[in-house]
């Protein structure tokens, strides 16, 4: 490569030209004569290209040859006995003039024409042919290529540059290389060395701010050639992948922490309920106990948000009309908005149904609308608007909104799009990339938990959807939510579900009779639940994990009225216990209790609608009500 670059960069030395067989000369793009070989000099005068061609060819052929020289084109044309060939060599044109018999067009006293081409001349002609092709490739290549006047890149001046280099760097011939590189990367120019084994990453200073990888190549004498490859798109995709991986890792941590917190909160809640039963209103301890209970309830809501972000909430998804859900929920949304804010909902035509958990979908809209409200109030303009729009969208709409992110994961189907637009403060690109991270907030301390949008992100992803945003600082923000449209099969399978849903009457008396198998790996939860249910008249057998519960059922089959089981346990988990114990359950009702549920359990709930679910943390009253209701339905 270095040898070809040396040939490409030569403009003063033309030893190879002298070795060529037959008349040949170099001309600049402007048509100025540069040099000729001895065969040329013995026949023609050192004149510019136009007088030479006009003296040998007719006007039309001379015009085409002159055009090839000036525009850097290749040409091979014959007129009468004269053959003219034009080849591009760097910024010059090589013109060769021969007769059809292989003779030059000499005066009468010319010596005998040269014989066959020598081995040396053949090698030079081959190199010239390769060089011509290389020059064309460099000019048309999508990578930037420039010749520098020295090898110290920081002080180098660009002598020549191809179009791609000018597009990437924003300048070409005559520019100082250090002026084209962002100031933060100016020191990286010192790391550019001829023969370097690894590219040096450089950010350009022009408006586009492309990120490039640069190589320094050897040129003639002390010069160098700089090769620039635009890797901006690749770096952006790597950044997005890293961001996605980080959010997934945070989600896994959040889900694990939330699972443990749920068990701790459940122990606190149930013991607090038991104490409140013994210390009613008027008791000196009632206020403190009530404070503990209220704080536990607030902590439980925070845990629920963490689970939503981690996509570990247990969903019961149904076929929903998004327009109807929003219209119904708009009454509540208007109550949380300030009277200075204009709130509008606009529904598009032919909006498809979606398969989602209604309660979780309402959580999404509430979070988006309240964030939009806060953005408008923070703008300082005193008024503004929040607009919710719905429409049927295509896969291409989703791709456009995501700007290339997660393209491989997008299902090719119809989509329901819900957008929430505000005229608030907007946000910078840097903030936009972090906005869905848990505990990241732009609000003042004490005015936001930073978990709301993280919750939205988790719910949408767990619903097989996507969320994207467009924001302009000081103008506003639009969040786009995309949910996949339902299929005909989804609608058919949802019919029994709708028919099975009945309004459950809340039992007034929470005492009862029946035999219950309680399966819970957390000892504190197991002990307090067993004790409280026993106090209400139930016969309770407890098991510390799925294996122990299965052994109890095998030894005493068809004897339990209700199985109350945790979902996530070491070894045999709740869904695994259900599958393994089916032959021994008889007519026993099944209640799963958990705040953290894997995706396969969510599918179990959708496939087996007779299974009941009690989300953790729950109160004593909720536990007793669910047990009484299930046993009554047995």
Q: What does this 3D model show about the protein?
A:
By secondary structure, this protein is an alpha+beta fold. The chain has 5 domains: about 1-140, Beta-Lactamase (2-Layer Sandwich); about 145-230, PAS domain (Beta-Lactamase), CATH 3.30.450; about 245-310, Helix Hairpins (Orthogonal Bundle); about 320-490, Heat Shock Protein 90 (2-Layer Sandwich); about 505-634, 3-Layer(aba) Sandwich (Rossmann fold), CATH 3.40.50.2300. About 45% of the residues lie in helices and about 20% in strands. Helix 4 packs antiparallel against helix 5 and helix 10 crosses helix 15 (about 450-460). It is elongated, with a radius of gyration of 39 Å. Residues about 1-15, about 100-130 and about 490-505 have low confidence and may be disordered.
Give a summary of the structure in a few sentences.
With 634 residues, the chain is of the alpha+beta class. It is 43% helix and 21% strand.
Q: Could you name the key traits of this structure?
A:
single chain; 634 residues; alpha+beta; Beta-Lactamase; Helix Hairpins; five-stranded antiparallel beta sheet; 22 strands; disordered N terminus
Main sheet: strands, sense, barrel: 5 strands, antiparallel
* CATH class designation of the largest domain: Alpha Beta
* Total number of domains: 5
Rg, Cα atoms, Å: 39 Å
Beta strand count: 22
The name of the CATH topology of the largest domain is Heat Shock Protein 90
Identify the overall geometry.
elongated
Which structural class do the helices and strands define? alpha+beta
CATH superfamily of the largest domain: Histidine kinase-like ATPase, C-terminal domain
As a percent range, the share of strand residues is 15-25%
How many individual helices?
Answer: 21
Q: Report, as a whole number of angstroms, the end-to-end distance.
A: 84 Å
CATH architecture of the largest domain: 2-Layer Sandwich
Mean pLDDT: 77
What's the arrangement of strands in the largest beta sheet?
2-1-5-4-3
Helix content: 40-55%
Low-confidence spans: pLDDT under 50, at least 5 residues?
A: 1-13, 102-132, 492-505
